Description:
The structure is a homodimer.
Chain A: H1 16-35, E1 39-40, E2 46-48, H2 49-52, H3 57-62, E3 65-69, E4 80-82, H4 87-96, E5 105-114, E6 126-135, H5 141-157, E7 161-167, H6 168-177, H7 184-191, H8 194-208, H9 213-223, H10 229-239, H11 244-262, E8 269-271, E9 285-291, E10 298-305, E11 319-325, H12 326-336, E12 349-351, H13 356-371, E13 376-378, H14 385-394, E14 399-402, H15 405-409, E15 413-417, E16 423-426, H16 428-435
Parallel strand pairs in A: 1-5, 7-8, 12-13, 12-14
Antiparallel strand pairs in A: 2-4, 3-4, 5-6, 6-11, 7-9, 9-10, 10-11, 14-15, 15-16
Helix pairs in contact in A: 1-5, 1-12, 5-11, 6-11, 7-8, 10-11
Amino acid sequence: MAQKPSIPKGTRDFSPEEMVRRNYIFNTIREVFRLYGFRQIETPAMETMQTLMGKYGEEGDKLLFRIQNSGEKASEAPEKGLRYDLTVPFARYVVQHREEVVFPFRRYQIQPVWRADRPQKGRYREFYQCDVDIVGSDSLMGELELIQIVEQVYRRLGIRVCLHLNNRKVLAGIARLIGAEDRLVDITVAIDKLDKIGIDKVNEELQERGLSAQAVDRLQPILHLDGSNQDKLTRLRTLLADDEIGLQGVNELQEVFDLMQTAGVTLPVELDLCLARGLNYYTGAIFEVKALDVAIGSITGGGRYDNLTGIFGLSGVSGVGISFGADRIYDVLCQLNAYPEQNAEQTRLIFACFGEAEKRYALAWAAALRNEGIAVEIYPEAVKMKKQMAYADANHIPFVAIVGENEMNAEQVMLKNMLTGEQTPVTLATLKQMLS
Amino acid sequence: MAQKPSIPKGTRDFSPEEMVRRNYIFNTIREVFRLYGFRQIETPAMETMQTLMGKYGEEGDKLLFRIQNSGEKASEAPEKGLRYDLTVPFARYVVQHREEVVFPFRRYQIQPVWRADRPQKGRYREFYQCDVDIVGSDSLMGELELIQIVEQVYRRLGIRVCLHLNNRKVLAGIARLIGAEDRLVDITVAIDKLDKIGIDKVNEELQERGLSAQAVDRLQPILHLDGSNQDKLTRLRTLLADDEIGLQGVNELQEVFDLMQTAGVTLPVELDLCLARGLNYYTGAIFEVKALDVAIGSITGGGRYDNLTGIFGLSGVSGVGISFGADRIYDVLCQLNAYPEQNAEQTRLIFACFGEAEKRYALAWAAALRNEGIAVEIYPEAVKMKKQMAYADANHIPFVAIVGENEMNAEQVMLKNMLTGEQTPVTLATLKQMLS
């Protein structure tokens, strides 16, 4: 036998069992997006290198997969690459189709992305992103809706989560307040570790990163901010009273919390000043969602960006968006053992096969059941019963219909419940009712 | 402004309007696959070059897109390429996972494929295939089920089609019969043109391709075969009486027609001896589906292959499969203007926005409607009414809910029908009923 074939490292095949679970996640997310009036787009797997290069930092450029036509010489620089995320293609889409797009543009996109990362546990070179964005409006209704979507998606999936919320303007105000306006990233990298390394180590790192002792001192009340979200906002409002931008951030947070209350959001949301993802592009709200019962890091994240399309020459388009990580959600549901037991996607019944007359009888019944929307199969060959039962078992088919002469004469089938082993003769009408 | 961004030639963006139509096609196909108990798999966009090379002929090898990590030197031969179809990845999947796969394996797969073809009208470098196959069984129930699937899919889509059916064994028998066993491909290439160029030109071409005058003579009764499918089968049975393989092909065709009758298939199916696609790999049945009301060529095709997985070292696995061409089906539905008018995917209602109190009122109503599974939006900003109406129009939202002080006091909204322009005050209960 030839060498067993394989797939490129960091990529995956998905078996039927995995696809049922993945579709459950994608369908749940898609259905919630739909309920909030988002519209789907798709973009090509390939983008020009001009579109991709320089958008993800130097490190990102190195992680792009480049594409060559077979006809091209290896020495020619490839002009195409695989998309690295859904955000840059979306920005490119909005600019390229700006004559047709009606703002505010509420779009979602669920497609794979590719990164030449070193493969490791839970990190793949091909994985799906589920992005939802509103662009062309700076209304904080956008932030509210994304929070509502997070609440709905995880409620439907049965995953308890907490949404962490921050605002880049508040972080900028704090940096200015302690006299370290140019140290925003250093500050956030250090305080992001508060939970892990404790306050003393954080203060050490802040000094190592070039903050003055005085600046570190002035940061202390903010690091010790606790209490309810409202307590924190009140305290921040006092601390940032003289900083216009900082205050604006506080006001935005306040409005989002007010809107959440009006809309009856019950999702746990925590104002988290240590949350500092995406500071290179987020300009307002920053979101991150963590599962409460599984230690896996962020499973959804996003924020507001005031200049998404500026990179392609169209400025003044503000947007806010989030991205659901389907692969991590998959792992969370596995660990929680929270997939639904029955799935409408799967075959409900298979007709065992004994011979020609029985096959003909099964064909008529199968057609009648499929007409009711019930997924059924007919075993194609009259092999040993044991083999047919093993097939039903392996494919998680809950019922086997056995047809013999007696059953045909009585216009029935013998229905075997594969879980209990019970056998009952049933008519077509009964079967329709049972399986609908 | 920077240069307007673009996408690689031969690729496409899909707008929300296009996605609604594409999803309609994919969902219809998927739902029928599901009813017949097929299970979905997905494979990576990238396969190793070892998997891809030599599988599509010399021409095919040239149409492969090769992938390089950005880190790799241009001089290194790329070890990965984008998948060219879904058949080779499926064969690779079956061999790689042969310990887990339970035969007969009924799988479907709906994913994009990439070919570095010269782009032209209706031919793209990225396009979707919808493949459905049964492997590990040589029962002709497989052929029947694929025909039933074709019937169901096109009935649901409202496209009138004819399925052309042939059998490679019959073609081989005919070639032997006329003493030109080694000329099977030459014969089929020539007679495939019968409709276009007429009998005289076909006979000329047959001689040019090296058939003796005697062989061409002996082919004449077969080229003139007409009448019903049953007439043709009877005539072929006589003609091929001494050819074991040819007769086997006739018997297979007969059994498929018998099974169709038993199963009540009403799809027009024509025994077409000129159909000769895929002779490099098909070993039994050959299928091709053509739309009756649109001249566009084949929109679905397939056949039986006795040795799909042999290329990867696993022999003896017979299979039968077909592939639906989503892009051509898209074009057919456009030409027939046969898309459904209303689509459940789309937003049903938008709340116009006048101010804060009205927004709060709308938030409560929107939550109640979404709870019923009804997709609604709230316009995020209190801009001019005209702009909000234009938004609803452009996004094909059929109803706008207008909220003012009177409506809030009466616990109603003013419902505007965007098609008729009619305005009616309605309660939440009425609205739920109308939009469910």
